[in-house]
Amino acid sequence: MEQHTTAAARPERTAASRLAVGVVSAGRVGSIVGAALQRAGHRIVAASAVSDASLSRATRHFPDAEILRPHDVAASAELLVIAVPDDAIAPLAAALPLRPGQIVVHTSGAHGAEILRPAHDAGALTAALAPAMTFTGRPEDLDRLDGVSWAVTGEADARYVGEALVIEMGGEPEHIDEADRARYHAALVHSANHLVTLVNDAADQLRDMGVAAPERLLSPLASAALDNALRHGDAGLTGPVSRGDVGTVAGHLRALTDADIAAAYRAMARRTAERAQGAGRLGPGDAARLLDALSHAGTGPDRPDLSRPEEETSE
Q1: Is residue 299 part of a domain?
Q2: Which of 54, 78, 124, 181 can pair with 119 through a Cys bridge, CB separation 3.0 to 4.6 Å?
């Protein structure tokens, strides 16, 4: 299948091939996915909006659409986009008036197409289309979709329709099996949401010690580390764990004894040591000493100085 990832390369749609699209609802994700479909040549005919913010987004992104109840949005749409919180998808799909020949997709990363079983049983084509992107509600969200990968899950024809829609929106379809959706989503959450927590925790530590602009200090370092990881994998790892500097790590643990990030630091350092050893960056002896240090609160009067390991014997 030919890939189209730029606005200029998107196929032109004739009036006959345009779909009447309904969006439930016009939240941060639904409004942008609807806008991307509209940019691809489809018509947003209706949307639901449950808050003032959603109503503002719907008005801004597709001003010609009617604002209706979800039931009426579904009835008016050839392509129905369900973009609601994960736990609301199944009851919503069971309650809406869906029909044969309709295309029904949801945008949740955590679920596959099975959660749309009521729509499938009603004769609709059902697929899960989830962009690997974070949405902030800011104007740049739409442009960020260009070239983004989308997890596509669906049976046979529905999957192909989903892939075609993704390509029209300038994305790259990535097939994910139904059974793998939860693990897929966990991986994305770990890489994106937890990254935000990690960076903000580090910024708080710097701010607490008087650094005026911790974001400016961290930006080039964190950006380079992310680039190294994506380009070079485990070979991009640097720092005391990758060097086997047990004393430095033990010093960190002592400094963080009363900090709220101590447990998170310990868990990430342990996982980093495991990956470094698995990649051959860290020898078994250094790895064992690091893991030992990480399993305790730090060196003290009743513990040896792990920064100077005892001479190894042949025993």
Answers
A1: no
A2: 124
Is residue 260 in a domain?
A: yes
The model's pTM: 0.85
- Residue whose tokens read 């009617």: 66
Give Cα separations from 194 to 28, 186, 260 (angstroms): 20, 10, 15
CATH value at residue 52: 3.40.50.720
**CA-CA-CA-CA torsion for 255, 259, 264, 270, nearest 10 degrees?**
20
Whichever domain contains 276, its CATH number is 1.10.1040
Report yes or no: 107 and 133 within 8 Å, Cβ to Cβ: no
Give the residue numbers spanning the domain of 213. 184-294
User: Cα 148 to chain center, whole Å?
Assistant: 11
Q: What Cα–Cα distance (Å) separates residue 45 from each residue in 76, 77, 127, 130, 251?
A: 7, 7, 20, 22, 61
Of 146, 176, 206, which one is at a domain's C-terminal end? Answer: 176
Please give the pLDDT value at position 247.
Answer: 96
Domain boundary among 176, 196, 216: 176
Indicate if 155 and 212 belong to the same structural domain. no
Instruction: Answer yes or no: is 301 within a domain.
Output: no
Is the pLDDT confidence value at 130 over 60?
A: yes
**Which one-letter amino acid corresponds to residue 44?**
I
Tell me: do 26 and 118 sit in the same domain: yes
Structure tokens at 166: 């993704």
pLDDT in tens, 189-228: 999 999 999 999 999 999 999 999 999 999 999 999 999 9
